[in-house]
Amino acid sequence: MGVRTGIAIAQATELAGSAGVTPITAEHDPIADSMALGRVADALQHQISPLVAIESLGKRLWAGQVLLEPDTLFCDLSGVTHLFEDEAGILDATGRCLAELGWVGKLAIADHAAAAWALAHYDVNDPVISTRGVDDLLHLSVNALRIESEIKHTLDRLGIETIGALLRLPRGGLAQRLGDGIVKRIAEILGEVEIPLEVHHAEQQHLSSHELEYPTDDLEIVMDRVGRLAESIVASLAACQRGALRVACRLELVDRAPLSTVIGMFAPTQDQQHLHCLINSSLESLRVASPITKITLSVLQSGPLRTQQNALFADEAFGLGDNAVSDRSLARLVDTLSGRLGRDAVLGVRLSENPLPEKAFRTYSLTDHRTRKALRRLPSKQPARRKTAGERSTFHAPRRDDARRRPMQLLRKPVRLTAVEKSPAHAANPFQALPPFRFEGALHRVAFAWGPERIETGWWDGPTIRRDYYRIETETGNVWWVFRELKSGEWFLHGRFF
């Protein structure tokens, strides 16, 4: 129907509607994706091969990759092929295993992990069993090498689209022009270098359930049973020296569909009382329309407990102004707020590499441990932009020690300003470059201005955006952060100073 990853939801809905299909829209949850892939890996370990690995990713997207999260499983078939008669039998058994879980996979078997990945992602046939080695790979796109987008762009300019065309070039020249990375990828797909695979290990299941003797909707009784189940869960976690990070509570009802709630933690915990309070707070927000017959607590995600102590006396009462506030206090605060307000209401902030101010940071839930771990692996510093000849005297970027380098309030979306006069083509100073403009029904004239500071995006981010930013003070005393879009010449308000 034309729906593809990355397009606007409104456009996807329109395309689906024109085909007579009513789409279902749900918020993307990378944690749920990771957990689902883990369940598939567990099933393949039981039914296909004991050596199953989830693909490892780099810090940057590969060419042709949309999301920076794994979507591929590797199975080592050494010593198991005879159990299924032949390789075709393995593919049939894998297809049945996925179907039991409600999934359909693109399957490929090859001599090396890199070749199998390439065939599974870019060969038109499904499934694929490689019998000719390298000859089966020559027609595939160079994206099958898992190369970076910049390298793919250079190969496109050279007219190299397939692996076969790339292999005809000398590796020495490729390394000199494109770096050692592409040479390593070629060696991997030819089987000269093996991809290191980290075997997936299923996490021990921590689960406890209680079936009520009589169905009840008495919240006090339910809370008491939840406390007993929490005690059992904590004992199971203590046996393997781990703490709970994500706990699910499932309520089975009389003549109604079961209700479930999931609680995420900021840090691994074995505190029974803390778990009990979080689960109780979550259950209070549920609308139980029928008596409860069974309660089940399960640990969806756990982690090793921290062994370091931040202070000499761990039980000492700390004040908010004390720098030695313990991690336990912070974790409890985040857990409590997330439990009452929702996990998407208590967020952390991390800088990104995007030069646009509105995209210069990303937020994430503090109780989504896997997301936090993945973000820590990403670079947070933006690379310095090289200055062109003559730029030093034209653009005036504020110093890092300038208190007004960036506004206190950044608008979520820049607001267009209506200029009442045209900007001079060649202004003698920054003041003349900013014309009087109207905003919120009032006329504003610029009294003082600092800038311009040019901010622009790279070619790899799509259509180029080029802006000249100014810090201005109007005659009424307002101090704003505005920019002029160089392509259209229009002015926008992007932030306010206080």
From TrEMBL:
Listed SUPFAM superfamilies: DNA/RNA polymerases (SSF56672)
Entry keywords, A to Z: DNA damage
UniProt biased composition (Basic residues): 377-387
Compositionally skewed regions (Basic and acidic residues) per UniProt: 388-404
Presence of keyword Heme: no
Keyword Acetylation in annotation: no
Region (Disordered): 377-404
UniProt name for this protein: DNA polymerase IV
InterPro entries, per the entry: DNA/RNA_pol_sf, SulA_CellDiv_inhibitor
Origin organism lineage: Bacteria, Pseudomonadati, Planctomycetota, Planctomycetia, Pirellulales
